Amino acid sequence: SYSLKINVADNDFDPYICLWSDGPDQCGGLTNNVPGGLIDNFGCYLNFTPNGVGFYAAALTVEDFIVLPTNISSADYLSQVPIQFVFDVYDSPDPCYTGPIYIGDLEPDICIYLPVGVTVTTRVRFQVQCTNATVDSVISVNPAGLLASPVVQDSFDPTIFAFLANFTSTAPQVGQNLFCFAAVDSIGNQGDSACLRFTVASQTSSLQPLYIRNATRYPMGTVTKTTSVWTIFTAPDVYVRPTFETYIRFKQASDNTDFYVLNVVTQLDSVLFLSDRIVINSTVVWTPGGYFYIYFDAGVLVDARLCSKDSMPISDPNFWPFNVPYESTTTSTSTTSTTSASSTTTARTVNIIV
Question: What is the DSSP letter of 285?
Fold first, then answer.
């Protein structure tokens, strides 16, 4: 028996379901041709048991929604995307038929957040499961801008093989970009696929709900240099403190560098998650004449590993800006006058006539 994960990503994080395609209308008459095939509609897994060698065609449809339906027959979908593929079932002469497994470096299906125009590099590793087997090839579906290095064998563990993936993000890729891969060993066994989700964020097009609805926050604009309490209203959403390290940053607008940083996970008294708001307490004196803005890292509001709209960063300098006025200075000058008395002695000559 096999359980095949249908790898799906919705670019703007809408929920989705997977279901069999309607043969006459959606896939040229192809109906379910997978023996005993069952679909986990909400988890998007295809479970089946081949009953003989040969080729088996599968036709599925993915539908996305504003709100995930309870009934898979719902017609309220936003869009439908067809997926077709073919299984090649064969008799293996080798007693080992387990394909290579993905072992990291990153967790499968994790979101990797990055801004537009940035390159990230990650290592993809597989471990062969059959004695004396090697990784012969890697099958992958790559987003635009991804380059992969050749697969190399680990010098310390001959069962491990790895390659590097370099992804450079562009403006049209805001949202999720799925990178999926599976290794094939030298026997011909194909391992299960795994995916990484490169999630691109733009300063002015964040999908984060608080940013989209322009949530109330204060203070903004001109503040004093000792301002220390900052509040953003989150209702009707309720956010809880994340467990995966992430930061709220007070940045200098002049060069976008960090002026003051708070660890949301560990600084419990500095970042308060309340039922309808988040309160930030700062303990810094702001530079007079300075311009600043508040920046939310990915994962401040919802764990970044969950790949949701709420996990997206808020990085727009115009979302929560503030400035501190110059301090006026007064200079006083005192003058001391001194008056002195002086006497003048004039020498006189007296002539005496005798």
Answer: P
Determine contact, residues 9/108, Cβ cutoff 8 Å. Answer: no
Q: Are 151 and 185 in contact (CB under 8 A)?
A: no
Give residues with Cβ within 8 angstroms of 192, minimum separation 6: 4, 5, 99, 101, 102, 182
101-201 and 209-323 share one CATH topology?
yes
pLDDT value of position 347: 40
Name beta bridge partners: 231: 218, 279
pLDDT, position 333: 54
DSSP character string of 307-340: --GGGS-B--TTTSEEE-PPPP------------
| Helix/strand/coil for 304 | helix
Taking alpha carbons only, the member of 140, 133, 137 closest to residue 150 is 137
Q: In CATH terms, is domain 101-201 a member of 2.60.40.10?
A: yes
Neighbouring CB atoms inside 10 A of 292's CB total 22
Q: Mark 31-46 as b/e (b = at least 16 C-beta within 10 Å).
A: ebebeebebeeeebeb
How is the chain split into domains, by residue range? 2-89, 101-201, 209-323
pLDDT 10s digits, 219-238? 999 999 999 999 999 999 99
Pick the CATH number of 2-89 from 3.30.450, 2.60.40, 1.25.40, 3.30.1450: 2.60.40
Cα gap 177→63, rounded to integer Å: 18
Low pLDDT (below 50) residues in the chain: 338-354
Q: Give ∠ CA 159-104-169 in degrees, rounded to 5.
A: 130
Separation CA 131–CA 134 (nearest Å)? 9
209-323: in CATH 3.20.180.20:
no
